[in-house]
Amino acid sequence: MSSCCLPASDGVNHDVERTELIQHCPVCGKRGKGVDTLTVKAMLDCSLHAIRPSGYGFCRSQDCPVVYFSRDGEQTLVETDLRVLVHQKHPSEDSVFVCYCFRHTPGSIRAEVQKTGQSTVVETVTHGTQTNQCACEIRNPQGSCCLGNVRAAVKQAIVELKSQAVLE
Amino acid sequence: MQTQTLKVVGSNTMHCAGCETSVKFALQQLPGIETVDADYKTQLVHLTFIPEIVSLRQMKEELDWIGYEVEEISDA
Question: Are the beta carbons of A83 and A138 closer than 8 angstroms?
Fold first, then answer.
C-alpha cells in the first residue's frame, strides 16, 4: 500500500509526543537532508492535501524505501508516491536521471565517455545553471543541484572505460 | 541588529540561483533573521539578524541540514 496521504506505519512510535523536528529517516535511521516543501509538492503524484506543515527531509540511503519524511515524524513518502524515479535509490541505473533539468542519465554519460573518452556533461550542466536554465528545486527530487551526482557518474563511467581498456 | 557574512566551504557548494534560493529559504525560516543575501559566484551569504533571537550556531545547523558547511567571515 502506498504511504502517500497516510501516516507513516514503519517503526514509528506515534504515542511519543514530538516537540523537536526530526532530521533522521524514521525507517533507516540515517540523517536526511533538508528539502523545500515546494520540492515535495512538485514531486508528489497524489493530492497535495497530504502535505504536512512541519517540512520534509530527503532520505538519500540507497537501500531505504523512503524518499521523503515529514519532520514531525508522522509521514513517509516512497518512490511510488512520486512522479519520477530517484537517482539516489538507483545510482547505477542507466535510465534514471542523474540530472533532471537537462535530462542526463548514467547511460547517456557512459555512452559519451565510451564514444569520445571524455564527458562534457559537467560543463554543459554548469553552463545551464549559470544561465538560470535549471529548476532543481522542482525537477530534482533532492531539491538541489545535481552537479555532485553528475561528477560521480562521470567518474564512474571513466573508471569503467579504463577497466575495459585494461581487460582488452 | 547584527550583520554576519558566512562562506560556504566543503565539498557541496552553491552552483546556481537555485542554490542561492535554497540557502535564503532555509535561513528565512529561522525567527530573528532579518535579511539574507546569497551569492553562488562568491559562495558568500550576507545576513542581518537579531542575536537575542537567533544564534550563529542555529544558522550553521540550518545550513548543515540542507547540505552546506559554512564558516564565519568577519565583517569589516
Answer: no
Q: Does B26 touch chain A (CB under 8 A)?
A: yes
Residue with cell 528565512: B28
Q: Which CATH class is domain B2-73?
A: alpha beta
Final residue of a structural domain among A57, A83, A109: A83
Identify any residues that bridge with B9 across adjacent strands, giving them in sequence order: B69
Instruction: Give me the interface pTM, i.e. the ipTM.
Output: 0.72
- For residue B20, count other CB atoms closer than 10 A to its CB: 18
Phi-psi region of A11 (alpha: psi -120 to 50; beta: other; left: phi over 0): left
Residue A17 pLDDT exceeds 70: no
Same-domain pairing of A20 and A50: yes
Calculate how close chain B gets to A54, using CA atoms only, in Å.
Answer: 11
To probe the interface with A, which of B22, B59, B68, B69 has the most A CB atoms within 10 Å? B22
Chain centroid to Cα A44, Å, comes to: 13
> How far apart, in whole angstroms, are the C-alpha atoms of residue A20 and residue A140?
27
pLDDT of the residue at B22? 86
Q: What does pTM read for this prediction?
A: 0.82
**A20 and A67 part of one domain:** yes
